[in-house]
Specification:
- The chain has two domains: about 60 residues, Arc Repressor Mutant, subunit A, CATH 1.10.10; about 45 residues, no CATH class.
- Helices cover about 60% and strands about 5% of the residues.
- It is built from five helices and two strands; from the N terminus they run αααββαα.
- It has a two-stranded antiparallel ribbon.
Length: about 120
């Protein structure tokens, strides 16, 4: 489920899934990924609750218009937790802090360009 949620968030943030784009049905995505439909349904429900997607009864799930999805305090809490997990994961890889930061900037640049534009 986490991979679906993270994948949709990434695609929306990168502009690969534009506002108003129709997502595959629960059944279709479950068949494509060869997973239980309940897993897809839970992922979609989380994305709807966070404001990434909106359900249009009888039509399906669509990418929602961007809005503030989380409070500033929650955004900061999640950033801090993600940074701590990231540091825990890379600390033993023998890269300099500069190398790690440059690599993260490479990953984040496509998303920053979208926000700036």
């Amino acid at each position: 489920m986490r991979q679906i949620v993270d994948g949709v968030r990434r695609q929306v943030a990168a502009g690969e899934l534009p506002v108003g784009a129709l997502l595959p049905s629960v059944r279709l995505l479950a068949q494509q990924l060869v997973i239980n439909p309940n897993t897809v349904a839970k992922a979609y429900a989380e994305l709807c609750a966070e404001g990434w997607l909106e359900s249009r009864p009888g039509l399906g799930l669509f990418v929602a218009v961007a809005r503030e999805r989380l409070s500033q305090a929650e955004q900061q809490r999640r950033l801090n937790a993600a940074c701590s997990r990231f540091v825990d994961d890379v600390i033993g890889l023998d890269f300099s802090p500069e190398q790690v930061c440059e690599r993260m900037l490479d990953e984040l640049r496509p998303f920053g360009a979208r926000r700036a534009g």
